[in-house]
Amino acid sequence: MNTRSLIFTLGLCCIASLASPTQIVLDTSLVEHQPFPRKLHGRFLHITDIHPDPLYEPGASQASACHNRPNLKDNRPAGYYGTPYSSCDSPFRLTNFTLDFLDEHWASEIDFVISAFSSRASRHDNDNDIPRSLDEIYDLNRAVAKKMENVFLKKGIPVVPSLGPNNILEEFSSIWSPFIPPTSSASFHKGGYFSTEIVPDAVAAISINTLYFYKKNHAVGGCKYADPKDPGNIHLDWLEEQLEGFRSRQMQKGYFPECYYRFVELNLRFQDTILGNLYGHQNIDHFSFLDADDIDMSTETLSMGTLSSSTLFETLIADFSEIPEPLDDAHYDKYAVVNVNAAIVPNPYIPSFRIFTYNTTGLSGFAKDIGSDPYLQMIKATQRQRALNHEPVRALKKPKCERKKFRKTWRCQFDKPWHSDSQSPSRRNSLWSPLGFAQFYMPRLAEFNETHGPNFDLEYMTFPLSNLHPDEETQDNTTHQYVIPLRLLPEELRQPGAVESEYTPYELNDLTIPSWLNLATRLAKDKELRSRFKEFMYMGGVQK
∠ at Cα 482 (539, 474), nearest 5°? Predict the structure, then answer.
């Protein structure tokens, strides 16, 4: 299936060192440094692409990147809190409001944060009259890192930054060091990638640096099989070691923000360990799949490399139409899910962030003590037993691999067993499974000014309406774990009884692989649902 634009999307950045990073499987966590115990809420924040711009000027011309006063013909000057559907970056008013809003309304309701701030913590270099300097990049990163530290880290909430453009410089190791566990400092310092346990001895996050997979980066070689010292191969060797280590401890590797064949194969081989992939940068809300067909040697080339005049929406729907039906467990072995979030920067759409909910049923302790929780120990013992008895899927080589042209390519080397398990949390709703998300956005950004302050509104949720409140049989409001706190829902959803809502178009019981594939096939068939999906992707802006 065509997964165009999903992997090589973070762009070129500066490189200080391409030496092999120290490969250490993480055994401690930032959570150990929490100032006080935190009970798990079963929620986390995914927020990307903030791009603060110190030169942003309300009333300025969009043609000047919102830096200079407009001429008389400019009919849509820069707004006070930002300029929607533009090429302008975020004014400090918007970035400060967003983090203050999260501090006030969400910091007490989440367990950790997945962010792409570190690679997006400065303005774009899109004003020829005022080039962006390295000192400016440093200063903006320091400001964003400090704000993130105050809002989240000092409250004991782990933050997992992901890197990309502008970030592999020694200075960034210092700026973002409070967010990096000591055991990952070597890989972070040398390569800009790391892993961390966001729920100790249970759930980890791996932050990948896609610079090493980017075609326009002439300092790397494209992960060729014959070049084991290529920085991309070194990075993916490190990733494989992380996944092997986490799997051996019956840990779930949660959310890593991504050369391509190896990445797909690792996702499929460790499907029983990986909970999902979270991305940013494109600023377009959508999902897609990593598919076994992408590494199948029966195909000559990968379609993601081809140029197309189709929009991303059209490409996705065409891909979804190719999913075979009916699907069964054998089909589910062949997929991994990718989620791409919208951005805070209103370029080219409007500010947005996402709150995920995940399954913590059965756990009773605080985050720091989860590793010794009796229920978790029982689950791990069951997983160990299943791993012993479960016969993994084996990826078979194709006759084409006997040809000299293909013999030394990665797709002809994938002969290790795939750990696909129908009972894993990526496949069946169980402990740590992602359950759904709520998307919040700022549709009235252009209206906000000195007297009319901004706010984030609910855009949509993936949950069914029935999941928002206790079921009718129990009606136990004291122990019910709300997927979204009632005070943060629209008035119409705060009381039980609603039978339909524009906020719940998908009605997904969870975000496991079968649920995502089911949604994809529904989108291919249902014109009305497809229209809503498109609306969420582009938020009323230009379709790309």
Answer: 135
Torsion sign over Cα 10, 15, 19, 22: negative
Chain segment 162-203, per-residue pLDDT in tens: 865 445 557 777 888 899 889 888 888 888 888 988 888 888
| 3-class DSSP assignment, residue 71 | coil
- Mapping DSSP to helix (H, G, I), strand (E, B) and coil, where does residue 283 land? coil
Structure tokens at 485: 């706190």
Tokens of 285: 């809300």
Neighbouring residues of 347: CB distance < 8 A, sequence distance ≥ 6: 51, 86, 87, 88, 89, 124, 283
C-alpha span between 232 and 243 (Å, rounded): 17
> Closest Cα partner for 242 from 303, 189, 160, 187?
187
347, 411, 336, 355: which is closest to 6 by C-alpha?
Answer: 336
Q: At CA 36, angle to CA 34 and CA 37, rounded to 5?
A: 95
Task: Quick: pLDDT tens for 491-503.
Answer: 999 999 888 999 9
CB burial of residue 456 (10 Å; 0-12, 13-18, 19+): buried
Q: What are phi and psi of 204, to 5 degrees?
A: -125, 160
Q: Is 288 helix (H, G, I), strand (E, B) or coil?
A: strand
359 and 365 in contact (C-beta within 8 Å)?
Answer: no
The amino acid at 63: A
- List Cα–Cα distances, 535 to 216, 316, 468, in angstroms: 32, 14, 23
363-382 confidence digits (pLDDT tens): 876 666 676 777 777 877 77
**Left if phi > 0, otherwise alpha if psi is -120 to 50, otherwise beta: which for 283?**
left
Cα–Cα nearest to 9, from 224, 237, 257:
257
E strand or H helix that includes residue 174: helix 170-175
Cβ neighbours of residue 256 closer than 8 Å, sequence gap 6 or more: 162, 205, 206, 207, 208, 277, 278
Report the SS3 class of residue 203.
strand
Distance between start and end Cα atoms, the chain:
19
